[in-house]
Predict the 3D structure of the following.
Amino acid sequence: MNKSIFVFIDEFDAFYHFSVADNILTYLIKLPIQSIVTTHNTNLLKTKKVRPDCCFLLDETAHLKSFADRTQREIRQGNNLEKLYISGEFSC
């Protein structure tokens, strides 16, 4: 990882407990690299580590948009992204 400038990890948390996945996400954020990780774990949306403009959703028509671009709502730091996601706020 020391020589990497970009890392892509598909389903990075597929076999880990939530706390391990959270620690991996924390580690990746601290690295001086650009990283993209995919997950189905909505628990990671509870953390203060993720921003709505950096979370993306790929829909069934293969359109990729950030959470911020999928809602008319002004999303603030205090919003619970997991609750908004589960309620369908980003499904437009």
Notes: The CA atoms of residues 71 and 88 lie 10 Å apart. The chain is about 20% helix and 15% strand.
